[in-house]
Input
Amino acid sequence: MKTKKLYPTWFTLGALIFYLGLFFLPGIMGIGYSFTDWNAYSSEVNFVGWKNYLKVFEGGTNYGMFIKNTFLFTAVSSITKTTLGIALAILLTSRMVKMKSMHRMLVFLPQVMSFLIIGLVFKNILHPSRGFINITLKAIGLDFLAQNWLGDLDFAFKSIFAVDAWKGTGYVMMVVIAGLNSISATYYEAAELDGAGFWSKFRYVTLPLLKNVIISVTVLNITYGFRVFDLIYSLTNGGPGNSTGVINTAVYSEFSKGNYAMGTTLSSLLFIFVMMISYFILKAVGNKEVEQ
Output
């Protein structure tokens, strides 16, 4: 009996050692280094306490803006992709749309492409002088709509949001479609017998039964939003100036300059933000389920 209990443990041991050695241990070491002055210009590593963390939140630095941009990107990205994903999922499961599989494939296709490739492609599409969008606008006499999409403070972040939504909405759509297909048709038939229209069925049948699906994609979108790097790096590299910089672009910049301690400090803060927000979301959901 004892052998049978231990036998499955051996299958997880290799993965556990791999995870502890390559993820958990380096993460703990990174948090430890955030309390030092570790850099590329000295062989000595000295303990400095909370100095790096205080520097992040003090005035006169761009770190506060990077944190604000990270939260802004996460909020807008999560809301946009979740809303569009639900809308497209409902549309592409309705009877009025033909060739549903083809449309689903076209919407989902950007998801399988690399963020870096998409960033480089859209950087050319949105180029102010030779980009496809501005050339097309000028060709049809709409010159006044042509903009410096990635170089103007008013449009840079909006352009990033649009590209991110184009890439990520398909994944949310497919997850929601799976959730919609799991809802029994009898619920909708009963609602129709009570005289419910489209919006009533959506509000009182679809949304409540999709709650767990929506929570799952929201948590995934939030963790992605906080970890975003390659899309912003390839599109604007945090510019113009530092206006579209986020925590991970700041981490990359600090490590590039040899300020390893500050890079690990920002990474540690990012980890704390993700853990706290994920905890509160799951806690709030758990409390509502208990009340119900």
Remarks:
- The mean pLDDT is 89.
